[in-house]
């Protein structure tokens, strides 16, 4: 009798193995724990092999058979995703689900309006989003957990494709009372003598700090935060200046205090914003349409 497996069973099995527990896989996939548990049990019965050792205190541990199956299951899931992309390319239609990953900085400012306008133009598309760090975006694309990602061209691996949308020059955020707030432009030499509030996100922080390193300077980092809203509030309340590339929609911090934005000139490189994908992804009509929509809306 042939073995009957489903893509859903393999997806739940791989997620449980990566997360180490049914509960964590349930949260990751937004699927009930009993559904995941039942799928794994059915998979084990179909194969006639135990895939996990259930440990009350330590969650799930893969058996050797489970580890072998997990490698093949990932291949099958990736191939299934590619088949879906090919089908979309053949039909050249803009429809179906579109899972978007995005850096936190984009999620706060542009993603909601970008989704709304894209879905208004293409009502047969159902978008979802997840906020990730740069390295998490790379991993999620490779595991086919997301289809596309809004990101920067920082530390990009060679196995992913970057589709340029816009180039964003850096600027300094200052409170109106800051001694440099009245300047039309600033250099890192102007900024280096004042306290800095560093937006301490992975990879992005290295980019900001490289401005000073190239000039042989060391910034005075007085505060660090991974949250853009917190960063703006700290700046507006006089804890220091900060640097960013994406202008907020208004000149107010979350607590209502005003901010000033001053361009940074000199040996500072703009950062490229774009859509990141696995190779060949934008042959899909839906994916290509989203890249074009980003260029129309964000340029």
TrEMBL record:
<comment type="similarity">
    <text>Belongs to the LysR transcriptional regulatory family.</text>
</comment>
<dbReference type="Pfam" id="PF00126">
    <property type="entry name" value="HTH_1"/>
</dbReference>
<protein>
    <submittedName>
        <fullName>LysR family transcriptional regulator</fullName>
    </submittedName>
</protein>
<dbReference type="InterPro" id="IPR036388">
    <property type="entry name" value="WH-like_DNA-bd_sf"/>
</dbReference>
<feature type="domain" description="HTH lysR-type">
    <location>
        <begin position="5"/>
        <end position="63"/>
    </location>
</feature>
<dbReference type="InterPro" id="IPR000847">
    <property type="entry name" value="LysR_HTH_N"/>
</dbReference>
<keyword id="KW-0804">Transcription</keyword>
<dbReference type="Pfam" id="PF03466">
    <property type="entry name" value="LysR_substrate"/>
</dbReference>
<dbReference type="InterPro" id="IPR005119">
    <property type="entry name" value="LysR_subst-bd"/>
</dbReference>
<keyword id="KW-0805">Transcription regulation</keyword>
<dbReference type="InterPro" id="IPR036390">
    <property type="entry name" value="WH_DNA-bd_sf"/>
</dbReference>
<keyword id="KW-0238">DNA-binding</keyword>
């Amino acid at each position: 009798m042939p073995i009957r497996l489903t893509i859903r069973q393999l997806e739940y099995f791989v997620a449980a193995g990566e997360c180490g527990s049914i509960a964590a896989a349930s949260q990751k996939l937004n699927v009930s724990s009993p559904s995941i548990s039942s799928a794994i049990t059915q998979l084990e019965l179909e194969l006639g092999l135990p895939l996990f050792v259930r440990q009350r205190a330590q969650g799930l541990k893969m058996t050797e058979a489970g580890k072998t199956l997990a490698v093949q299951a990932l291949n099958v899931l990736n191939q299934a995703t590619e088949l879906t992309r090919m089908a979309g390319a053949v039909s050249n239609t803009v429809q179906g689900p579109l899972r978007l990953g995005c850096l936190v900085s984009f999620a706060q400012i542009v993603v909601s309006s970008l989704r709304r306008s894209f879905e208004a133009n293409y009502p047969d598309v159902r978008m979802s989003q997840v906020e990730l760090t740069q390295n998490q975006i790379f991993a999620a694309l490779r595991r086919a957990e997301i289809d596309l990602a809004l990101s920067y061209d920082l530390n990009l691996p060679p196995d992913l494709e970057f589709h340029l949308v816009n180039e964003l020059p850096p600027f300094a955020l200052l409170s109106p009372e800051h001694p440099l707030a009245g300047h039309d432009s600033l250099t890192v030499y102007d900024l280096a003598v004042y306290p800095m509030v560093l937006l301490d996100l992975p990879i992005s922080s290295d980019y900001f700090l490289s401005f000073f390193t190239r000039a042989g300077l060391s910034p005075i980092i007085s505060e660090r935060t991974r949250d853009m809203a917190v960063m703006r509030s700290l700046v507006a309340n006089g804890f220091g200046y900060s640097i960013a590339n994406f202008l907020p929609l208004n000149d107010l911090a979350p607590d209502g205090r005003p901010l000033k934005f001053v361009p940074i000139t000199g040996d500072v490189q703009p950062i490229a914003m774009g859509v990141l994908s696995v190779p060949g992804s934008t042959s899909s009509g839906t994916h290509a349409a989203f890249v074009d929509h980003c260029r129309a809306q964000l340029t």
